[in-house]
Amino acid sequence: MHLLKYGEDGELTIAKFNEDTIPSYAILSHRWGAEAQEVTFDDIARTIGKDKSGYEKIQFCGEQARQDGLQYFWIDTCCINKANKAEFSWAIQSMFRWYRNAARCYVYLSDVTASPQGTDEEASAPLWDSDFRKSEWFTRGWTLQELLAPGSVEFFTREWEKLGDKLSLIQQIYEITGIPRPALQGVSLSQFSINERLRWKEHRKTTCEEDGTYSLLGIFDVDLAPVYGEGAAGAFRRLMVEIEKRERCIKDIRRTCTDPRDDKKRIENTKGGLLKDSYRWILDNASFQQWHYDPQSRLLWIKGDPGKGKTMLLCGIIDELRRSIAKMDLVSYFFCQATDSRINSATAVLRGLLYLLVIQQPSLIFYVREKYDHAGKDLFEDANAWFALTEILAKMLRDPRLNATYLIIDALDECVTDLPKLLEFVAKQSSASSRVKWIVSSRNWPGIEEQLEQAGHKVRLSLELNADSVSAAVNIFIQQKVSKLAEQKKYDAPTHNAVLARLTSNANDTFLWVALVCQDLQATARRNVLKKLDLFPPGLDALYKRMMQQISESDDAELCKQMLALIALVYRPITLEELVALVKQLEDIADDTDSIREIIGLCGSFLTLRDGIVYLVHQSAKDFLLAKAAGEVLPSGTEVIHHAILVRSLQVMSKTLKRDMYGLQAFGHTAKKFKLPDPDPLASSRYSCVYWVDHLCSSDHIESLQDGGAIEVFLRNNYLYWLEALSLCKSIPKGLLSMAKLQSIVQGMGKATSFKALVQDAHRFVMYHKGAIENSPLQAYVSALLFSPTASLVRKLFQREEPEWITIQPAMSNNWSACLQTLEGHSESVSSIWDASSGTCLQTLEIMSSNVAFDSTGSHLHTDIGLVAIIASQRSDVTVNKTQQSIHLGICISSDGTWITHNAQKLLWLPSEYRPICSAASGRFIGIATGSGKIFTCCFK
Length: 941
Ligand SMILES: Nc1ncnc2c1ncn2[C@@H]1O[C@H](COP(=O)(O)OP(=O)(O)OP(=O)(O)O)[C@@H](O)[C@H]1O
Description:
The chain is α/β, with parallel strands linked by helices.
């Protein structure tokens, strides 16, 4: 970036800066005068141009900058070397950022004067108001971003007199431009819809037609190289295509992760709301301040024992950062939770961080698209996802255009899968850029300490070493909780005081202990409160132990223990319906929700029920149940419980899964959009569908894996219905992994058995047909069956489900081809594809030019590569379609070549090997020639 500066001698000089060494500068926004009168880059280099009328603007900007204590300033007329094409192109793409990063932006209004000749009639409006409203500056294309990008925009008359800034003039600017106030106040532009942003530029003009679009690049945060000569329509089309590709990519990231903003809301909600007074102490803490304000302190590690309030502290810090930092700065965060397998892995952490970064600064999607355009959605979840995501994130964090960024990860100790990799990444990346600051929290684990030790620039904040602050915060929490209890339960003063005193003396600076006791008191009659107070021992484990003791004494002790064991071992929090399906003893009261809620209540404060989902109150409760209470809750070991969950899962799935559970009817109905039926037929089996194989892997699995065992029976009777259900649950990738796990288990079982053969075939089946079924659930019964080899066990088992309306089916070979799986979803040419979990596509398609046509009788299909198919019907009304042609009535190929359609309704998904390079349709017949030279025909009823 070139910047101007007036030297001591009053001479104007220009200097070039790298992106990361740019000093503080002012920037000018103005309306260009006659081209010949503007001072150019060349003029400055040759120290000429002072006689041009445009020089006055330079003087103005330089003088104003000097008054504001800024040495450097930037003006578009003379700070871009237009002779250098690459520099010019870079400048067009960087302009928004340069305006945004400027310390001051001065708008020079050459058509507004402080004391105009004609006076303003409106007594209340300043004299310049009418000129201001009519100023050409508001009608130009580039000035839109110059108004929106900078934090501070000041308006000056041609006499250099300041009129105000964009905040003091916000009402006028809103009335002139129609741009909503929040956008003028600096709210991130990504918060406004594409259409709304397009509306802001309506009626604005640019001298060069393409600039109408190029001046929007920053407003949409899109990287697009200018191609002058492409015309206004061409440029606009390219912008729209880019935006569409970006939106699709962001949606695909979101499909593979939960939204951390929702996780935060849920956590605050399940924990009873965030109390500001109980986290505010951190803002004045010396370590926190050092991290916040010292550029050399980049990683803050907050550590403390269970229940000390780390998670809520981080929630509070996120809120405070959001409030206090610049609107353009990025805050991205992730809450690990060991009890939920969707958010307890290192890859999930990166996905969540990445997602929040790209929705705040969409141009960062560039780094994702480098890979995503080749690999599609699998990029975020296949076996190599970790490597791809670390590379993407590392590049993003080094991008000189990255806004100041705060990355926050809560509960590293709850990252169950690949914690060491995550720690190594954090330790390395936290030193990488001065613009990026990290906060992580965890328990006092030496393993974490050891790895974070590797990070430079770190600050440690131990809650135990800040006992006074934490203690004060816990006391505030106690007061608030007890007041609420007293009000709800109508405590008299002595009871109120006794509860307060007891909690204060025994809390031991542990929020969670207070929360658990209050939960118990909530369910205690007022008359028993004082008696009960003595029974709450200090310390979390002691409290858990007492809760366990109470459960053991209840009439439903066995049932409660079974429920606790189950909840401690499931891979994500489950719904009430799923709970009922998985606990046999609840079968008899399945419809009695009140009784089920009552039993959950009997499990003491170990469980919380919110929005129909059962949660373990805290990770420390899970730790307690699985270790210290294992003798009582899991007397026969965890394997037995996993096995019981597996058996119940198979039962509930066998009972509920069937063809077309959601009544989609149309064979091409997409899995992306459908209305969830009420009641949801999958409500009780959703968890089982996704996790039964995981429970098998953790169980003592021998008996269920025998020939004729429960799993074989399940697969024989329900395999296709299960795949349909997985598609409806948007979990086909998980299903693929499950089948890979199952296959590797049976592989290790030695001799060939019928079960082993079935699992192998079923694994091939889902790998090959993943795309079709994931796209449209009912294609499990159409494309998947028809394009499986005739000897496929799954095909034979589900012959009854094959569509009757296809009377001539594609001829298939006996056995599976070498193609294991095709990775769908990429939109560009593919240079490299890999997927270690599911194998590589071994077949390469070589596209040959080929023509296909029916002969004059309609009975023979000819191609120029010499293959002929004989058609049963005698038709002569033949049309030949090149594959890229648009929709036809009757039987046809979709314009993207992936479907056979009828009257534009999708019927049959074509696996990539079977997609046509050209096709011929005749009445009910369609002939297809593929790139590999294969020819096949289908006839529809
Ligand atoms: N600022 C706060 N506002 C409201 N509740 C709080 C606050 N801080 C802590 N709590 C209460 O204390 C409980 C424990 O806090 P939190 O879950 O944050 O602990 P933690 O240190 O993250 O535990 P762990 O690391 O073991 O998961 C919460 O469930 C909540 O009830």
